[in-house]
Design goal:
2 domains, 12% helix, five-stranded antiparallel sheet, six-stranded mixed sheet, Immunoglobulin-like, 249 residues, 1 helix
């Protein structure tokens, strides 16, 4: 009788332990279902002489995971007032979430280095400033209130499609950030027109697929040079736009 009672107690105890374990696993699965943001720590040589080597490094993590398999890590570099002439430098994957590159500049000036990191369906793009030599001389210019760049901390990264062909659907993706965080629930539209017919403009609504990433598809009717202007607004005072030229064959 005692053995039977003891066995019954052991059985009840084991069932209780299994229930507790199952509950713990459920909690873990629930937590895993919530995507953690990317953490991208960008460091650069912030002061350097002309032709000096600028070391660029970024550490990419998500929670406690060091991301070695990012889809894209590249660095966009431009001089003050010359964003349209920016160049992109590919990174080297040094493992343990570390991606590096080097560059240099042949004249005095103020430059910006922006990391573009895409990993696990997320995108982020922190920016650092570099002073070369005496920092150069830049005349202050008056900017129209509707020009891009009025919102402090706002960043737009348009993934410009390549090898465009008329009659084929083209996916266009833009990433938006404010203060190094994804800009969510913005009103984003593409304004598209053929330079050969500038009076006819198409407006395309854009869908936010993940936080800060906006995607739309468009079919260019004929081979020509097109303008694509991206308009971004929110519920406050943000109103930004950038314009790109697309060559369609």
């Amino acid at each position: 009788m005692l053995k039977r009672k003891f066995g019954l107690l052991v059985g009840v105890f084991m069932l209780a332990m299994m229930a507790a374990c199952n509950k713990e696993e459920t909690v873990k699965k629930g937590e895993a279902g919530v995507p953690l943001p990317l953490d991208v720590q960008l460091t650069v040589t912030e002061q350097v002489e002309v032709d000096g080597i600028i070391k660029i490094a970024t550490v990419v993590t998500q929670g406690e995971d060091k991301i070695d398999d990012a889809d894209e890590v590249e660095f966009e570099i431009w001089e003050e007032g010359k964003k349209d002439a920016s160049v992109k430098v590919k990174s080297k994957n040094d493992k343990d979430g570390l991606y590096t590159a080097e560059t240099s500049f042949d004249h005095d000036g103020l430059f910006y280095i922006q990391a573009h990191v895409t990993a696990r369906g997320l995108h982020t793009m922190p920016t650092k400033e570099v002073t070369v030599g005496n920092g150069g001389n830049y005349e202050e210019t008056v900017v129209d209130e509707h020009d891009h760049g009025q919102t402090e901390g706002f960043l737009m990264h348009f993934t410009k499609p390549e090898n465009l062909k008329s009659g084929e659907s083209t996916e266009m993706v833009v990433h938006l950030q404010v203060d190094d965080k994804p800009l969510e629930k913005a009103r984003v539209r593409y304004e598209i027109w053929n330079e050969a017919n500038p009076d006819k403009h198409d407006w395309v609504d854009v869908e936010e697929t993940v936080a800060g990433e906006y995607v739309a598809s468009y079919t260019f009717a004929e081979a020509s040079s097109y303008k694509v202007q991206i308009h971004v607004e929110d519920d406050k005072e943000l109103h930004e736009h950038e314009e790109y030229t697309m060559e369609v064959k």
